[in-house]
Amino acid sequence: MSFILIRNANLYAPEPLGVQDILISHGRISAIAEAIELDTNLPIETLDAQGQLVCPGFVDSLTHITGGGGEGGFASRTPEMNLSHAIKGGVTTVTGALGTDAIFRSHEELVAKVKSLKEEGLSAYFYTGNYHFPVKTLTGSVQKDIMLIDECIGIGEIAIADHRGSQITWRELASVASQARVGGMCSNKAGIVLVHVGPGEDHLARLFEVAEHTDIPIKQFYPTHINRSAALLDQGIRFNKAGGVIDFTASSTPEILASGEVKCAHALKQALQSGADENRITFSTDGHASLPEFNSQGELVSLKVGAMTALHDELKDAVLIENIELETALKTVTLNPAKVLKLPHKGQLRLGADADLLLLDAHSFEINSVMAMGQWLMKNQTIVRKGTFE
C-alpha cells in the first residue's frame, strides 16, 4: 500500500490530541488532522480506529536480545528474543545489552541480532560493554564503537553495587563515561552510560561521586533497576531531582517482590508523589535477562526470565491501579526513553516521525494492533509478521 489512513483515532502522542486522522506513507507519519481527505488514484488502506486509543510504539531501553548468562550454570542461560516477543508487548524499538556473561555472550552476536531484528521489522540498537571493567568492546575502544558502529548508542550495563560486578571505582567510572560522552558528541548520538544498580548498600554512591569530583554531568548516567528496593528508590528520586534520568525495571517475579522490590507502576507513583520529574523517569523490560534471587550469602535461590510484555503490563497497572494519568504513564515507555537514547523520530506521534504506533482498547488498554515503520506487525490482535524461524 502506498498510504495507510487511520481515521477517528483518540490520539495520545503521548500528550492527548483528541480524535484525529493519521496518514502514513513510506514508514513515516505524513499528516495528523481532524479530517484528512485524499484526492489520489494511488492505493490507500483505510482503518477506522473509533473506540480505540492510538499511541506511540514502546521504546525498550534495555533488552537482552541474545539472552543472558545464567547465574545457575550453563543450563540456566536464558534464550534470545524473537520478533513476536516484542510484538506481543507493543515494543517497536529495542536496545540490546550484554549483562553478567561477556564470555559466551559476545558483542559480535549482539550486533548480528540487532541487524536481524532490523531486517524483520523492528528498530534496534545496542550498548557496547557489559557489567565489567575493564570494558570489553568490538573495536578496542568505547569511543570507536559508538562513533563507527551505527547501531551502537552507548555503553552498558556497567555494574555498580553488585557482587557480580568489578567493584568499579568512581575514577574508573568517570573515565568510561568520558569516553562514551565524547563518542556520543562526535557522532551525534546519546553516548549514554547505562548503569546496572545491584542490591549493594552503596546504591548510587559511585554516580554521585563522579558528579561531585568531575565535570561530567549527572545526566550522562542512566541507572536502571532503581525500583529494586525502597532504599534505592529513595536515592533514585534524589538522583532524578539532581537532573538525572532513572529507569524502573518492569519485569519481576513474586519472589523478588517479596524480597523488597517495589513494583514498577507503584514506584512511579511514589516517585511522582515525592516530587520527581516525570520527564526523567523510564520503564524498561530487562527482557530475556535472568531474574535471579540470591540469599544473604549471595547464593542463587531461584531464577526466572524477564518478559517483554512487562512494559504494557506496568503501563496498564499505572493507569488502572495507581490512578496515574495515561499521558504521564505513556511517557515512561515512549517519549522519555526515546529522548534518553537520542532517537528523535521515536516515542512520539508527530509529522515526520517514524510510523511506530499501537492501537489500544480505550477501556482495558489491551493491544489491538502494532505498527512498526509503517508496517503492520499485529492487526486485530493477530500477529501478522513473525521472525524468520518462528
From TrEMBL:
Main location: cytoplasm
Similarity section: Belongs to the peptidase M38 family.
Keywords: Hydrolase, Metal-binding, Metalloprotease, Protease, Zinc
Name assigned to this protein: Isoaspartyl dipeptidase
Species classification: Bacteria, Pseudomonadati, Pseudomonadota, Gammaproteobacteria, Oceanospirillales
GO-annotated molecular function: beta-aspartyl-peptidase activity
PANTHER family on file: COLLAPSIN RESPONSE MEDIATOR PROTEIN, HYDRANTOINASE/DIHYDROPYRIMIDINASE FAMILY MEMBER
Amidohydrolase-related domain ranges (all copies): 267-376
NCBIfam families named among the record's database cross-references: isoAsp_dipep
Localization of this protein: Cytoplasm
Cofactor: Zn(2+)
Stated role: Catalyzes the hydrolytic cleavage of a subset of L-isoaspartyl (L-beta-aspartyl) dipeptides. Used to degrade proteins damaged by L-isoaspartyl residues formation.
Extent of the signal sequence: none
Co-factor note (free text): Binds 2 Zn(2+) ions per subunit.
EC number: 3.4.19.-
PTM comment: Carboxylation allows a single lysine to coordinate two zinc ions.
